[in-house]
Write a structure and sequence with these properties.
This protein is of the alpha/beta class. The protein contains eight helices and ten strands. It has helices at 41-50, 85-94, 98-102, 108-126, 140-149, 169-175, 197-209, 227-246; strands at 4-9, 12-17, 25-30, 58-63, 67-68, 78-79, 133-138, 158-162, 183-189, 213-219. Keywords: Hydrolase.
């Protein structure tokens, strides 16, 4: 039976919905800017409830971002890198998104290495290959997952991008072909007031052009994860689980 545990992977702590005795897949979901470290735990539970076939087969890890926002008056909030919220607000107000797609955030490299270390430890301790790892996340967490997916020594089994956007465009354009044939679920609200829908289509087009297998879900709604996007993530995991089981 799956249980919720708290584990440490290098410098990152993570909530883990376990799969015993040995998972066939590990899904790693990174939360968004300003969320508490346990923000995605209910979503992990929702996935297992909607897809019982994943129980005891898929271990779900939800790492806590390393940066505390307590000094900004948000004591329970965390981030993968700092954001200039005033600048982001001006960008949205002026619809000047070209700067956003070229941005290389401060501390992205640090969080990238922390997540890569976590992946390596999970693969080693659980006996999994890169193809048995699914990366994903929401908002800022999905951007980190996308960046890391392009930098793993071997590509992951899948990528899930909930309300993400295109960053670091020059580098991502060069690295995106590493995701050729990788299944990707991407969702974005057409009324998203934080990250514009247009920026999601830029990322979709980049990954599609690189040969990734994109399932894109544009939905009527704001900056959130609709059930349709959760369902698509579960279907992706089920499809990989079938492949993994066939090879074991």
């Amino acid at each position: 039976m799956a249980t919720l545990e708290w584990r440490q992977y290098g410098a990152l702590d993570a909530h883990v919905i376990t799969a015993e005795p040995a998972p066939q897949l590990a899904a790693i979901f990174c939360h968004g800017f300003g969320a508490p470290g346990d923000d995605l735990v209910p979503l992990g539970a929702q996935l297992l409830q909607q897809f019982p076939s994943l129980l005891d087969q898929v271990e779900i890890l939800m790492p806590c971002a390393p940066l505390s926002l307590a000094d900004q008056g948000l004591p329970n909030s965390r981030a993968w890198w700092p954001l200039d919220l005033e600048r982001l607000s001006r960008t949205i107000e002026l619809s000047n998104f070209d700067d956003l797609r070229r941005e290389v955030p401060d501390q992205l490299a640090t969080s990238r290495e922390l997540l890569l270390d976590l992946i390596k430890e999970v693969m080693t301790t659980r006996g999994l290959s890169a193809g048995q790892i699914v990366l994903g996340g929401f908002s800022q967490g999905s951007m980190l997952a996308t960046d890391v997916a392009m930098r793993m020594p071997e590509p992951p089994g899948g990528l899930i991008i909930w309300s993400g956007t295109l960053l670091n465009e020059e580098d991502w354009t060069q690295r995106a072909p590493r995701l050729k044939d990788v299944p990707v679920v991407q969702s974005h609200g057409r009324e998203d007031p934080i990250l514009p829908y247009e920026s999601a289509t830029w990322l979709r087009d980049l990954l599609t052009g690189a040969g990734a297998k994109i399932k894109f879900i544009g939905f009527r709604g704001p900056h959130t994860i609709p059930n349709e996007a959760v369902k698509a993530a579960g279907q992706l995991l089920e499809s990989l689980l079938d492949t993994s089981t066939e090879t074991h």
